[in-house]
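for the writeup, i need someone to sanity check this before i put it in the appendix. the sequnce is what the collaborator sent (i think, or maybe the updated version? ugh). structure was predicted straight from it, no edits. if anything looks off just tell me and ill rerun, i have time this weekend
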Amino acid sequence: MIRVGIVDDHPVVLDGLVGALPRDPEIVVAWSATTLADARVALRSNPCDAVLVDVRLPDGSGLDLISRPEPGGPAFVVLSSFDRPQYARAAYQRGAAGYVLKTAPLDEIIATLRIAAGGRALVQPHHLASLAGAASLTARELDVVRLVADGLSNDEIAAKLSLSRKTVEAYLTRLFERWAVSSRTELALRADREGWLDASAEP
C-alpha cells in the first residue's frame, strides 16, 4: 500500500483528491492538511510514503516542506496551477520527486505518486530543457542573458556588469552558438520560455 498525505487549501481540490485517489486499490490517503503548520504536525504523527503538496498555502509556500525533508521521510510531489518551468525547477532543486498540474488527469497524478513512493523522480519532458539550460549557464552568463532580456544594449550591459563591450560581445557569441540562436531576441525568448532567469521563483 502507498500511504499518501495531501496538502492543499482549496476545498474542491482537496476533497476531490481525498475521494479520487483511493480509487486505486494500492493507495490510501493517510491524512490531509490545509496549512504548512498542520502538514508538519501530520508528517510527525502519521508517517506516509508520499505527499502531494500545493505551493501556495495560507501560511507560506509548500516548497518549504520539501526544503526541510525528514530523514527517511516521504517523497514530495508538487501540485500546482502554474505550468512555468522556473517553478518546476525550483521544486526539483529542493528535492521534489515530481511536479504535476492541477489540471492533470487522475491517472497521471497517481502514476507520479507511485514513482515518487518507489524512490524515483519523474521530470516531465517539457521541464527537462529548463533544468538543463539553467544548469549549464554560469552566473555571469545568466547576468548577461537577464540584461539582454531587459532590453539593454551591449554598451549598457558592459557598464552594468563592469565589463568591456568586447567581453559582452564574446559572451553573446558563445551563447548564440551554444543555443543555436541568431539574435538577442531569440536568446531572450528562449530564456523566458525555458525559465532560465528565475530559478528561485515560486507561484
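The chain has a mean pLDDT of 86. The first helix runs from residue 11 to 20.
thx in advance!!
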